[in-house]
Specification:
80 residues, single chain, Rossmann fold
Length: 80
Amino acid sequence: MTTKPSVGIIMGSQSDWPTLKYSANILDEFDVTYETKIVSAHRTPDRLWEYGKSAVNRGLKVIIAGAGGAAHLPGMMASK
């Protein structure tokens, strides 16, 4: 049986993974289930907001958000 992830790790693009993978490594150490997704605050804002709106219903308790540059992703996620 597959366990629903309790943590979402979202990033603005694949190039952010080398930084965010450290979060995934710590979650692995504690056997915390997680999912990863690319949701750009600038290129796919509707996908970002849909991800946030559906998070609780999908079982997520925490969202870790990170992006390069100005990093609008965490702020936009928190705004919803």
